[in-house]
């Protein structure tokens, strides 16, 4: 392990780094283990941990907690890439390998939950980056976070692609006894070749579905966010069927499809990947996303209908109340800020 205090950050200016990260101090670390080779962790003591969602009236939740920024799951299409630019960090490889860790997140949250100004509102996690990405195996912030929510009987939800969530099964069960706990796992497709190239740092789709299965077996209902459905690569009827069938077999309580969208930050990175792996699709993508970040409504409706019909065929219930259903509209860009001003869903 190597660590340097305030000297090896992306910019190298301690005061500037601390201001950018919204922290009082920044310590930069790297680890020599194969799992973390090439990854730099910026450990910060954050000044706040519960974030209000801008434009929350459009969302099923108003408050979020994000103990990390950046994500080693490295999904090419990741909607959160843009938020790394607010920290003066690269939105491509930098997003995958420069991880900000709010090491005081559990303590901060416990303090916030105890505040007289806090009224026990629902807290959503995994809405920006994955709170069960590989870094969580080392930093173990989520047990303290869940314990704090449990102790205050505060309702919460988690959206993840990480199998690491099963480490905290006992805590989740305890929390579910005293408050509403909603878990969703993100599985957009089951095609292995596509998974290896487009979601290279994530557990395999079937491992994620094992999470759904295990949670269900322990009485914790788990929905699946079928996201993203990737045009021309995972949207064929047979592919949709295979994915919904696998989701149903895992015992998911719901399946919510979401078509790929390409906001600035993700769009450039995804299109470069497409050019490399599927160059024959570049022109079709340019046409499909000619109007902006979203695929046309007719295309989104078609996918939604197909998935809902399959879900009905395989006996999966409707989306549960309180769980994310859709990607919100992007918020207007703002200058560098300590917290992302737009929400992203895995
Ligand atoms: S889509 Fe989710 S899991 Fe993938 S890199 Fe982004 S935050 Fe991480």
Automatic annotation (TrEMBL):
Residues 314-346 are annotated as: Disordered. Keywords: Iron, Iron-sulfur, Metal-binding. One of its GO terms (molecular function) is catalytic activity. This is Radical SAM core domain-containing protein. Residues 57-306 form the Radical SAM core domain.
